[in-house]
């Protein structure tokens, strides 16, 4: 075997080793609707669909994530209802001499407003994450997002099906 043949054989072996390594795949980025799952990555490089089992597990994860978004929305609604149902004290009741009034109504309102803001921020972040999943333009992933929204609404949906956040 001459040097040239040895070099060619080694380069083919190196190429074969690269093809079998877990980092050798390329995530495809589709800008058109597709049903193809070859080289499909969901949001992260490590969330790579490599076969039927990983596809099914990934789709179940997307369903769970979408349903979880509806759960977060329901938690937010319940918190807002609880905060809004607390009667506001009158001027006579705001005296700091009253027992049990260690927290002023203003501080309580500020804390509730801060918690509402955190919950809102989580909803926006969550909805954009789900939007990124949808933007794989993969039909299977899109269906999983819709199924998750359905499951989440059935389990935790509020009194109305109207949406206020537009990204999911």
Summary keywords:
mainly alpha; 168 residues
Walk me through what this model shows:
The protein has 168 residues and is mostly helical. Helices cover 60% and strands 0% of the residues. It is built from 4 helices and no strands. The protein has helices at residues 3-20, 52-85, 105-134, 139-156. Helix 2 (52-85) runs parallel beside helix 4. The longest helix has 34 residues, at 52-85. The relative contact order is 0.16.
Question: What is the gist of this entry?
Answer:
This protein has 168 residues and is mainly α. It has 4 helices and no strands.
Largest sheet: none
Low-confidence stretches: 5-20
Beta-strand percent range = under 5%
Q: Count of helical segments?
A: 4
Please count the beta strands (DSSP E, at least 2 residues each): 0
**Topology pattern, helix = H, strand = E:** HHHH
Average pLDDT number: 80
How big is the Rg?
Answer: 26 Å
What is the global morphology? elongated
Approximate helicity band: 55-70%
C-alpha termini separation = 62 Å
Give a topology summary.
Blueprint: H1 3-20, H2 52-85, H3 105-134, H4 139-156
């Amino acid at each position: 075997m001459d040097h040239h043949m040895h070099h060619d054989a080694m380069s083919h072996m190196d190429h074969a080793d690269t093809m079998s390594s877990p980092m050798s795949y390329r995530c495809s980025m589709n800008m058109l609707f597709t049903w193809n799952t070859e080289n499909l990555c969901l949001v992260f490089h490590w969330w790579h669909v490599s076969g039927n089992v990983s596809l099914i597990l990934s789709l179940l994860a997307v369903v769970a994530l979408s349903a979880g978004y509806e759960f977060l929305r329901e938690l937010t609604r319940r918190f807002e209802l609880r905060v809004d149902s607390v009667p506001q004290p009158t001027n006579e009741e705001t005296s700091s001499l009253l027992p049990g009034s260690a927290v002023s109504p203003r501080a309580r309102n500020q804390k509730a407003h801060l918690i509402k803001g955190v919950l809102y921020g989580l909803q926006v972040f969550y909805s954009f994450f789900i939007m990124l999943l949808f933007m794989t333009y993969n039909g299977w992933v899109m269906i999983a997002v819709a199924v998750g929204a359905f499951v989440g609404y059935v389990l935790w949906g509020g009194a109305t099906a109207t949406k206020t956040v537009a990204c999911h």
